[in-house]
Amino acid sequence: GEGRFIGCAQLLLAWFHNHFWKVGKVSYRAFSESYSPLKEIVATSMRDDISEEKWMTIFQNLQEKDIEWGAPWLLPDEILYRCGDVDWVPFLGIWGAVGYAPLLVLRQYRSRQFVPATQGLAECEFSYKDDGYKKKAREMANAWNLTRRMKRLAVGPMTTPEYSEWWVRRINDNISGPSSEDSQSIEEHLRVVPSELEIIKQDFERRNAELEKKIEQMEEEKMNLRLDVDVQKLEADKLRKGKNKAEEELDSLKTNYKKLRLSMITDGLGKTSEQWREEIQEERNKSDRWERKFQEVQTRNEALEKSLSESQKEKGELNDRVVELEGSLHQYRSRNSVIELKASLSKIDEMKSKIEGLEAALRNCEGWIEHLEAKEGR
């Protein structure tokens, strides 16, 4: 319990040899009358060149999948797991006694591994020098009169979720028994373990489903490859046609070049360098003349633009003068309108006075007429 191993190193090495068979890459051999793993270990030369650091590296990098949880000498049979009223087996030796719990190594029996109750297991270990050892030894001997066994099922290594959690937490302590609410017997724990035939059937169905899925994927990939092949063929045909067209165009260019070369020779275009220099100089002179003419035209254009700008300026001044004259004319017309309005008002007043006089005369006339009519009536 303090990081030290107390036991037989040779038996521990034999356990490594038979359980780490995946690491050694050796074939699995079951125990039989003609084969004994212990005899094989004895006949095998022991290696003493592995240092302590090497062993530590091996154990630190060891994975669960590298261990075969089933010794070859354990044939399918019954498991003795209980003596008396405790879930472990007491062993009496020549110097003392110790308790062994087969339920902690159910994976070696190819059964489902769960977390068993081991409370009190540590108290089973005692020496014959301790006080009261005779009573303890007698109780252990009597416990062997009441044993329990269970049928071991040949199934693959399996663990319960509780055991996996317990193993990760590395609880190095005795485990109390389950409560009465969720208690489950050992037989019930093992009853849920499927049989070998069921496991083989499930494994076959799972592999069959995986193969069907892989076949579907391969069919799909095959179809995609066919489509890719067709596309590649079309691309190859397209490239081939493009290549043929490019070759035809190249041949046509070569033919045209030959014709042009022949035409140059025939038409006298094959001039000497001196003739080409004279012709270039003549073209330069023409270019200079055209450039001078362009500058003259540009100068004239600038003069015309200046004259146009001055004309536009004069036009603007004339427009301002016209606006000013229009304002003056409007003011003059406004003054004349006021004078005419006053004259019209005076005339209207005169007409009103005349109308009032006429109305008064009319009323007088009407009065006289009424007076005369009244007289005639009398």
TrEMBL record:
Q: Which domain of life is it from?
A: Eukaryota
Positions the record marks as coiled coil are 201-361
Q: Does the keyword NAD apply?
A: no
- Where in this chain does the record put each DUF7745 domain? 2-171
Keywords, sorted A to Z: Coiled coil
Recorded protein name is: DUF7745 domain-containing protein
**Native species:** Gossypium trilobum
Give the organism's phylogenetic lineage.
Eukaryota, Viridiplantae, Streptophyta, Embryophyta, Tracheophyta
